[in-house]
Amino acid sequence: MAVRNEFALERYRYVLQQIHAVNENAHRFLAIYQTLATALVSAALALFVGYRKWDLAPATARGGVIGLLTLATVVAAFTGTLIVVGALAWLDYRNEECDITDEVVGPGFRKRPRPGNFLRWYETYVLLFILVSVITMWVLAALFLLPAMR
Length: 150
Known about the structure:
This protein is mostly helical. 82% of the residues lie in helices and 0% in strands. Helix 1 runs antiparallel to helix 2 (58-104). Keywords: Membrane, Transmembrane, Transmembrane helix. The chain crosses the membrane at residues 31-51, 63-91, 125-146.
């Protein structure tokens, strides 16, 4: 029985470590998205401001802006995917944590996570931020940048 409890304790430590890592990853993914999106949008704005001075055809400059915004959108989609996968992994690890505590400590020691509580998860708002920022980039480009590049 002692070996079983020691194994359960080690597994429990591992699960808690993984939960912590999953939580930290969401922040890393957001930082990567913010950095790459800022760089890509800055490049698009630099292209918009300097295309005449660089003797680029307006159609080429428009294509460049669209390409940079498309790349920012791909980065956003990739980041969103990583955040969703991380949230699913978190749910899995939390359920495993509950399985261990149910068996070793007693049933109901730790409440199981409920996916219905997604409005309380910060990942939900990170995903909303990413979605709103991508929509805002495209709308502003369509309203102001692309029409001015004729």
